[in-house]
Amino acid sequence: MTNGNNLLKNKTAIITGSASGIGKATAKILAREQATVICTDINEESAQKISHEINKSGGKSHAFSVDVTSRNAINHMVTEVVTKYGGVDFLFNSAGSILERLPFLEISDDLWDKTFDLNVKGTFYTMQSVIPEMLKKQSGVIVNMASMAHLNGSPKIAINYGASKGAVVTMTKGVAREFADQGIRCISISPGPIDTPFQKTASEEIRTELESWVPMGRYGKPEEIGELVLFIFSGKCNFMTADTILVNGGGGYR
After folding, report:
1. What residue numbers bound the domain in which 179 lies?
2. Is 242 helix (H, G, I), strand (E, B) or coil?
3. Residue of 186, 139, 174 whose CA lies nearest to 10
4. Residue 5, in any domain of the structure
5. How many separate domains does the chain show?
6. Catalytic residue positions?
7. pLDDT 10s per residue in the chain (254 long)?
8. Is the dihedral of CA 148, 150, 155, 157 positive or negative?
9. Distance between CA atoms of 140 and 159, rounded to whole angstroms?
10. What is the CATH number of the domain that holds 151?
């Protein structure tokens, strides 16, 4: 692993949904900067794989199998991390999904509930578990994964997803403002289409349409989001909190 500037040396970062896509790319970037990276995912084998890759390359990592829709599973993971590493400095809530793409009138109660359980409750539970540990040190940074869907509503594709990410943006703003005077910053990132396994599940028609919304004419790369997470964690701009950062190649509002 090629070291960067050791921006996060001796710091501990928890990443949910770290087995693929943006979570995986971010895990490697934070490890490059000497953070101890806690890789969590519902897919235990994949979480172990990325953690092993980091350790083999000279970084520091530990893997946990975590279903973010389970408060007990999150609390257990955070307790173990604090016991082993002494605290939590950073949290990146990357876990989330559309689950299924459907027009509005075909969205069932079950799909709606599962979408909010994963995207909203998962973020809610993890922050509630980590923030008390950050308060002990009066220091910490949280980044939550939102989406441009919170602005465009994701019509005809997944309004349930757009609504859930809108909730994440609002929750982020509230948490940031509640704890701003206690050393904790909280920011969300709203990406446009990013070239991840998440997007590859869409039909070719949807993928082509999404790309047409981007003036740059391409999908973003997971690493482009990961480097932004690093910047937020690095302390290079500690006045930044309580908002969502749009990363969309100039588009994504349709």
Report:
1. 12-245
2. coil
3. 139
4. no
5. 1
6. 161
7. 445 688 999 999 999 999 999 999 999 999 999 999 999 999 999 999 999 999 999 999 999 999 999 999 999 999 999 999 999 999 999 999 999 999 999 999 999 999 999 999 999 999 999 999 999 999 999 999 999 999 999 999 999 999 999 999 999 999 999 999 999 999 999 999 999 876 666 778 777 877 877 899 899 999 999 999 999 999 999 999 999 999 999 985 65
8. positive
9. 32
10. 3.40.50.720
